[in-house]
Sequence to fold (260 residues):
Amino acid sequence: MIHTTAIIDPSSEIDPSTEIGAYVIIGPRVKIGSNCSVEPHAQICSSVSIGDNNSIGRGAIIGADPQDLSFKKSTPSKVIIGNGNTIRELVTIHRSIIDGGATLIGDNNLLMTGCHLGHDVSLNNHNVVANACLLGGHVSVGDRVFLGGGAVFHQFVKIGNIAMVQGNSTITQDVPPYCTAHGRNCLSGINIIGLQRSAIDETLIKEIKRLYKCLFKSDEPFSKVIETLNQREFPESIAILLKALNNPSRKGICHPSKNR
Fold:
């Protein structure tokens, strides 16, 4: 299952059921679980942990040094990848800049050709990151998110659960859960299709739509609306949106264009 041209550090651990293609390079302290596939010319650098049933595409590079001028190569850090991920050709995933830190990939994600996940990115589960997406350092992505091709994301921003971002967008602020975003930090409404596909009850979807309208289309200041809504009780799936708005990243929150 290991091609004769592959170069594998003796300190690495690879499950016997995993297939390693031609000219693959696997560095020290790498762990790869069962039923994985690493296609030709991929490189998995040091201190990378990969779970079960993952596919690593041709020319992908996982665990390379971060692109941070202050980073010291001696810093011990990792990339940790869960189960059932498809990582297509030429994807790059960089290790953490933090001593003992890790760039984290969850389960059942699809990373399409040529996308980049910078150091300390956290990508949860069931996400689709389309071709040539660029995620800067410390970007946080929730569950069941779709990021359109060519979209770029500034470091430290948060992308909430079941959000959707249009291709070629430039995102330098948080995209709240359940929302769709386009262009430069512009919200365009609720991700109705994504909510339906996630088996969210139609009654809750209607409530999320009402909450969005109350938040972003009110004549009152945004902070005042948030303060008022914080005094109400919501089901957990709806409270997730309000919680994200109460705890934004340092970059702030995307808004509809007319309210910016």
Notes: Residues 215 and 222 are 7 Å apart (CA to CA). Residues 195-259 form one domain. The chain has four helices and 28 strands.
